[in-house]
């Protein structure tokens, strides 16, 4: 019951740029001018109430944009689930992913190897939860973007924290390395082994432990899938404070372990603020119970914070207590075309001012992203071809007020030429359709061949400069250089695609991209984390003393280094 | 320019409870019925727009409530600044605060004592910033609530992080204990020495380093006074994400060190979410630079989190980067009288639902709090005497929409008997007046003699039970037992006043209050922290393994234990 008003997907378009700049621009659907007599009335002459909710907000898009009417939902709203992913990536003809240890200069540390006795011990700890079948081990050894592959021979599927504790106690004693794994949707190779680390999967730890219907505090096991939690709390009139394209697969434990940002970060902030408590099993099997469900608790150091974003290197998260915001009564999504990046930026500051507290997402993508989403996933663009697209979401408690705010904003954005074309949705199916265009970019990119992925925090004014720079730098050596991301958070996803991995292309990209980012005081990993892939570039964003303190914390919490080795910490130390 | 509409303070009141329960209640000012013909029209018959902003919202309170008209501002809005406090507490006749080391069973650890050579070294590091005058050292040796007193002989006033670094390097080498001090408004005795620790004051580290007018990211030195920062960012159309009664004195560094909650927590969340970066000087003088100003940065462990709420025991915070929300265009405050605590709770859930995203504070106080504020500070109550009072603040981007939401809510609250009397303000002076009633409770209590302070997180349903319980338990042995606080966050301030400190009264309160709290899975320190006062009660809210990990972190970051000894960590370890 997220959406109260059932308004058909609305489409609108600015008049041609030839109108005299000072005359107030009229609103028009462009493609169906006859249907809207008010379109020819100058905006300034319309009464405010009318302007605030112009007629095009309530009209369906005509002809060529039929793909976004409800009937076409199948091609749009498909969640990115494990099946969706495997379907695309393990298709016949997809080349085998090379072994990480063969492609990268990395040496196995002197951990023990799993013996028959170990397997017997595991079988006693998690009866029926010890996977050694090579076939079944293929997928959990390969990362989501299919560029890294480990060679683990054992995957364990505990159901309880106590089982995790017993497993780790055994591994600690036996000096066996362990790779915690949630939904295996991580982007930096943190979730899969580099050599033969035991994969410790949270897939069967998927129970909701409690939900408080007044405060909205959810306590659950770490292996709950984000989308399932979303459904659970939405039925109770709350929402999860985070949302991401990988929601159909990723686990809440994985989200916390990576300090995932995602699509609601702009509104609900970081997991460092919304996670209220954690239960964590430490490397030696000790269960650390910080699973409080209190909004405030200043009884000493906030230990749980250590584990948020530690990517399985300091402990295994077994349960999460998280604060869920009330479900907004009205959600609106506007999908807009912008003529340039300067206009994207101006649209952002205008909309921050005019939408205020109801703004819940501000995402952007460039023209190439749209082309790839259309080509590979057969989604249809709901707006005219534009250099940039912006997705704006509002979430509020009063549909009328929200529509009025959004209406005024859109009117202003169209009238001032910031936006040239747009469409709006309020009912859930169509909202999902529009979101799919943005959420499924990563999936579309993965169909291109090899993807070089960069996830940068940059001053918002410079956000797109690096895309233009890299595009010029690589020229025809890359298939595509694209930019998209969470503009509202200053977070760019710069992606470069090529037929296959090539060391020379990599050499042209790195360290260039990192140096460029460091010059802007940016972050070389905004939200995806470090994992295996980024561990040697931390120095671009963190001073040596910080890296040293990270090492000291690792040594304190995991003295034998058995938890997710080769990840998150710089390799030279 | 925070307030756009200048509407006089409005007063309203529910009809007598005799009205038949099912008939929609009419709205009435009670005291001036003739002025409002619509008051006799049943609410259900009024058109929605009219209901949403009933006339009483815009009327001034009559006769006896004249104290809250603008002219009476002097007696209301006075900020709690250093002068206000000293004026009240060091008044002639105020008894000398006993030395902490004499009242409590605590032994000095084997730190060095400050020598002439040390003083000479400090003078070289901070020329003109070494205070040894006994007179000048009196105030910084006593805590805000005047129940603890240290005997430090040296206070240092550095201006830069480098100076702090040199001071700590010297102290570390010489094994001298150091007590970081901000505004000295802390409630748990963390900010003042127990013995002769050197006081390291941030008072001269009060520079804004940068402010980004698009993102709202403020970077400043740790000694900036919260209220001054508020003014600074408000002039630039932003607000600080936190606000507290102590704003006129407390430093942002102290706020971060205590992980202060305060009055905006409900809306903008914890400092763990809003603090983006910190610069910290570690015990050995190393400067740890985590002063990024990026909304997202997942390059490894989020080290700054360690220091948020660590109360000066792990490092000295020298600079803070913090995300400021845009200044709301409209702020409304409603001050309401409720007939019982059940109605307070119902008012809260109703207002969460009806005010949604614009709700920015929900505070409550009981009748005794109001009596004390009226008696000691000569503030006037703006509403009829009630068992409970509630202060609701909304902050939004559209004054009309907000007034409509608040109007509907108030109408419902009055109509259903949740609220019996109320007043509302939108202009800044009157908003401040209403806030003063809530913010200055701590000050009023401190005029009562000795105050036993408890700051508890509890399930909101049980929040007031402990007050009733303690009141019954103590009977005439206490002067007053009061309850107030941040109800929206489940945070109760339970305060007990007596003429003077008495071990037997303490014995009746402790461990009873802590045990009661632990039984509710609450926190024995919601926002005030641990300091000296609460260090031996942590076990009520944290398991042994967590306490052990705290000790390990302390040993890692401050192996000699020179930073704020006798604080935050349990004494027995
Ligand atoms: C289509 C798509 C869209 C995405 N969008 C976003 C986005 O918008 N924002 C964003 O931040 N990220 C995004 N991601 C990446 C993001 O990191 C992951 O989707 C998610 O947070 C990881 O969860 P997971 O359960 O899949 O963890 P995994 O991938 O299984 O693991 C990730 C890391 O966490 C560790 N880990 C997992 N579970 C635990 C545990 N219980 N205890 C300790 N360590 C654990 C692993 O060892 C690994 O280091 C996206 C990924 C995809 C595929
Ligand atoms: C009237 C009043 C109202 C209050 N209301 C609230 C409230 O609503 N919410 C709330 O949470 N608290 C409240 N408090 C208490 C609160 O803890 C403090 O007001 C504030 O956060 C402390 O800031 P300060 O600068 O005064 O720190 P101090 O009192 O000087 O120090 C507090 C602690 O932090 C340490 N510290 C200070 N500065 C630094 C630094 N730069 N680096 C490292 N450590 C440092 C000190 O060693 C000490 O342990 C209130 C206090 C008063 C007097």
UniProtKB/TrEMBL annotation, chains A, B:
GO terms for molecular function: (R)-2-hydroxyglutarate dehydrogenase activity; FAD binding; zinc ion binding. Its cofactor is FAD. It is found in: Mitochondrion. Residues 148-327 form the FAD-binding PCMH-type domain. It comes from the Eukaryota. Pfam families: FAD-oxidase_C, FAD_binding_4. GO terms for cellular component: mitochondrion. It catalyses: (R)-malate + A = oxaloacetate + AH2. Its EC number is 1.1.99.39. Keywords: FAD, Flavoprotein, Metal-binding, Mitochondrion, Oxidoreductase, Transit peptide, Zinc. InterPro entries: FAD-bd_oxidored_4_C, FAD-bd_PCMH, FAD-bd_PCMH-like_sf, FAD-bd_PCMH_sub1, FAD-bd_PCMH_sub2, FAD-linked_Oxase-like_C, FAD-oxidored/transferase_4, Oxid_FAD_bind_N. It is an enzyme of class 1 (oxidoreductase). GO terms for biological process: malate metabolic process. Belongs to the FAD-binding oxidoreductase/transferase type 4 family. Catalyzes the oxidation of D-2-hydroxyglutarate (D-2-HG) to alpha-ketoglutarate. Also catalyzes the oxidation of other D-2-hydroxyacids, such as D-malate (D-MAL) and D-lactate (D-LAC). Exhibits high activities towards D-2-HG and D-MAL but a very weak activity towards D-LAC. This is D-2-hydroxyglutarate dehydrogenase, mitochondrial. It comes from Chlorocebus sabaeus (Green monkey). The gene is D2HGDH.
């Amino acid at each position: 019951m997220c959406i109260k008003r059932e308004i058909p997907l609305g489409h609108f378009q600015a008049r041609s740029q030839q109108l005299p700049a000072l005359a107030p621009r009229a609103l028009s659907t462009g493609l169906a001018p006859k249907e809207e007599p008010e379109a020819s009335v100058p905006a300034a002459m319309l009464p405010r109430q009318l302007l605030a909710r112009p007629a095009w907000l309530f009209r369906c898009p005509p002809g060529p944009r039929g793909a976004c009417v409800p009937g076409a939902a199948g091609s749009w709203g498909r969640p990115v689930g494990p099946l969706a992913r495997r379907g695309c990536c393990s298709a016949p003809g997809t080349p085998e992913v090379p072994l990480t240890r063969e492609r990268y200069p990395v040496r196995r540390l002197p951990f023990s190897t799993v013996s028959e006795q170990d397997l017997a011990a595991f079988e006693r700890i998690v009866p029926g939860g010890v996977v050694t079948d090579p076939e079944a081990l293929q997928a959990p050894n390969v990362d989501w973007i299919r560029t890294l592959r480990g060679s683990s021979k054992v995957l364990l599927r505990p159901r309880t924290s106590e089982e995790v504790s017993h497993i780790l106690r055994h591994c600690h004693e036996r000096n066996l390395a362990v790779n915690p794994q949630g939904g295996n949707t991580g982007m930096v190779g943190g979730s899969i082994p580099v050599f033969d680390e035991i994969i410790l999967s949270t897939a069967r730890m998927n129970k909701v432990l409690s939900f408080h219907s007044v405060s909205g505090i959810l306590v659950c096991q770490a292996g709950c899938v984000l989308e399932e939690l979303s459904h659970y709390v939405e039925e109770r009139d709350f929402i999860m404070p985070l949302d991401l394209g990988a929601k159909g697969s990723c686990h809440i434990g994985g989200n916390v372990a990576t300090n995932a940002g995602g699509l609601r970060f702009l509104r609900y902030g970081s997991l460092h603020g919304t996670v209220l408590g954690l239960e964590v099993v430490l490397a030696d099997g000790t269960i650390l119970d910080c699973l409080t469900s209190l909004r405030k608790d200043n009884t000493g150091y906030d230990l749980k914070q250590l584990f948020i974003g530690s990517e399985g290197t300091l402990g295994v998260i077994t349960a999460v207590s998280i604060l869920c915001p009330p479900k907004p009564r009205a959600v609106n999504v506007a999908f807009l075309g912008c003529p340039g990046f300067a206009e994207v930026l101006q649209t952002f500051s205008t909309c921050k001012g005019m939408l205020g507290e109801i703004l819940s997402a501000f995402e952007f993508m460039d023209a190439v992203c749209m082309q790839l989403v259309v080509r590979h996933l057969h989604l249809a663009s709901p707006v005219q071809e534009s250099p940039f697209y912006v997705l704006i979401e509002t979430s509020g408690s009063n549909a009328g007020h929200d529509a009025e705010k959004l209406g005024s904003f859109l009117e202003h954005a169209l009238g001032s030429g910031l936006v040239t074309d747009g469409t709006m949705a309020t009912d859930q199916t169509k909202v999902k359709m529009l979101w799919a265009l943005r959420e499924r970019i990563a999936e579309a990119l993965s169909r291109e061949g090899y993807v070089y992925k960069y996830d940068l925090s940059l001053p918002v004014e410079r956000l797109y400069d690096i895309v233009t720079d890299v595009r010029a730098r690589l020229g025809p050596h890359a298939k595509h250089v694209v930019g998209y991301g969470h503009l509202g958070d200053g977070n760019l996803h710069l992606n470069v695609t090529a037929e296959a991995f090539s060391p020379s292309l990599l050499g042209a990209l790195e360290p260039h991209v990192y140096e460029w980012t460091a010059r802007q005081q940016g972050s070389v990993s905004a939200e995806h984390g470090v994992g295996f892939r980024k561990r040697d570039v931390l120095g671009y964003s963190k001073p040596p003393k910080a890296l040293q303190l990270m090492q000291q914390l690792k040594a304190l919490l995991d003295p034998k280094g058995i938890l997710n080795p080769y990840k998150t910490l710089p390799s030279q130390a």
